[in-house]
Design a protein that fits this description.
With 343 residues, the protein is of the alpha/beta class. It contains 14 helices and 7 strands. It has a 7-stranded mixed sheet, with helices on both faces. The termini are far apart.
């Protein structure tokens, strides 16, 4: 595996945070407060939160990507001891805060999806526009992010060739039926069955090892008349593989409820998603936690004694303005939902 130099990457990649103004508007950073960035990436949002919580607001930044942490450390160095960066998974937030001896925080940000660093580094395998190996692990120090019947927060991972799960391994070992399910479930790909069939046919001749090799297979599988779209034909398959390899939806669903518990009363959580599967989990979780009653719909009277722990601040998701999309095209699919802790 070719390892990237964090120093050179730091100089090469400038992260443009999505919906930065809106995040600050909802979180309202202040001095003497503690904030949490669950997906700190290259530190774009974190920098804005720290600037607005000067002189002594603190920020804890978590990320699965060790290379991103190294770059964020450089980008946020001017804030010195006001920043604590953790290489880890936000699904384990309770343990992370316990180690830091922090019981609660005043504001939380989750900016989901793939960073410019990951997309522009070919050997990561996230981009269908660049030739690279089919890795797709967010955490390349983690041998496996997906194992049948288990979630990443439920197990210990042992480093060996057998349990290193990458997109390459899944493409070359999964059955046609399993691949179809992955593409449909995590990519909402209408041509999932045809693409899976074409993959099985192609790998019988030679292993599928390269991103552009996979792109060609996908294009062969999708009818020409269905490719007349602004969306690249490989978009949904690459999304599905990435979500599957990293168990992104499991981690989000499991982690979100625990993350909300870390908020002090009056604290705000902002969650930015980039596709409908993430947004659905965020919307449903926020709505459930903001409900006064969780009794069955036909119950004559409320007997649940449920108390809402959140207040919705965004009944509908906030989307970027046209000016932001022009400056940063990757912002076009972003949706922000915000909620305030009540308990």
């Amino acid at each position: 595996m070719v390892k990237s130099n964090p120093e050179s990457l730091w100089k090469q990649y400038i992260h443009t945070p999505v919906l930065k103004k809106e995040v600050i508007q909802y979180i309202q950073p202040r001095s003497r407060r503690i904030y949490l960035d669950c997906t700190v990436g290259l530190g774009g949002h974190a920098s804005a939160i720290l600037e607005n919580s000067s002189p002594d607001g603190r920020l804890i930044g978590i990320d699965l990507d060790k290379e991103a942490i190294a770059i964020a450390k450089k980008n946020l160095s001017r804030f010195q001891n006001r920043v604590t960066l953790i290489h880890g998974n936000f699904a384990h937030l309770d343990k992370i805060l316990q180690k830091l001896d922090i019981s609660s925080v005043d504001g939380i940000l989750m900016d989901l999806g793939v960073s410019s660093l990951q997309l522009e580094t070919p050997q990561r395998g996230f981009s269908f526009l660049k030739s690279g190996s089919l890795d797709m692990r967010m955490d390349r120090n983690c041998p496996s992010s997906a194992k049948e019947g288990e979630s990443s927060h439920e197990r210990e991972l042992w480093v060996s060739e057998e349990n290193i799960v990458t997109a390459e391994r899944e493409l070359n070992t999964r059955s046609k039926e399993e691949l179809t399910e992955i593409f449909y479930k995590f990519g909402e790909e209408r041509w999932a069955d045809r693409i899976a069939s074409e993959i099985v046919k192609a790998r019988a001749k030679q292993p599928i090892l390269n991103t552009l090799q996979l792109v060609d297979i996908i294009k062969r599988a999708i009818p020409q008349t269905s490719r007349q779209s602004k969306i690249h034909p490989a978009t949904r398959v690459f999304q599905a593989l990435r979500i599957h390899v990293n168990q992104e939806l499991d981690n989000l669903e499991f982690g979100l409820k625990h993350i909300v518990k870390a908020l002090r009363p009056g604290g705000v959580i902002c969650a930015i998603s980039f596709h409908s599967l993430e947004d659905r989990i965020i919307k449903q979780t926020f709505r459930f936690l903001s409900r006064k009653c969780i009794c069955p719909p036909r119950a004559p009277i409320c007997m649940c004694n449920h108390k809402p722990s959140l207040k919705l601040l965004t009944p509908k998701p906030i989307i970027p303005q046209s000016e932001e999309i022009q400056q940063n095209p990757r912002a076009r699919s972003a949706k922000l939902r915000a909620a305030m802790a009540l308990l």
